[in-house]
Amino acid sequence: MTELVFLVLLLAGGVAAVAVANSLVRVIIGAEVAIMAGIWGAALSRDLSLLAVAAVVGVAETVLMVAAVYRLAREGHV
Amino acid sequence: MLWAVSVIALLLILAIIRTRDNILAAVSLTFLGVAVAGAVWVLHPEFSAAFILITLVYVVAALTLVIVAAASLSEENRTVEMRPVALAALGALPLLLLPGAGRGALTASVDPVLLPLAAVLLLFSFVVAARQSHD
Lengths: 78, 135
Description:
Chain A has helices at residues 2-19, 24-44, 48-74. Chain A is mainly alpha-helical.
């Protein structure tokens, strides 16, 4: 039960951080919190392979998001 | 024990939402990563704690630096409006109530086939990120 509460807390917290964001950096931070919900959900599956895949995919996706916002910031869109 | 981690995570999320400073929010995100790694360790001590801790902490800490660098670049005060997107994502939360497949056996070893696949995915995303940000 506590596991599910923690999962919903991370998901809802990330979405709330995105909802109140006023800059793209905050949107990325909120998405990171939601990615942690994904990693926690993989940990709930009791399979270390799934947990590793979730962590690696979170890294790859975050790298792409940060690169995109860096490019946007250089062009003055953030 | 998990309750304590949940309370800490709730406080950190509230700090992320309430603070006006992007750098403080990124630092709170780092501590939230440590809290999630601790929660994984509390839930399954059989998992090699070093792998999970190092992965989560290293990733979040390294990306915090990049986010901070990007945040210091953007001084223009144009705001973004993401509330409809966030509410649409929140609409998917009831899917959590669907019954799952039940508890499987605990497997505390990584499938070795995953390692080259993960390496290729990371290399691909780093190449794309480098090409995108250094044109």
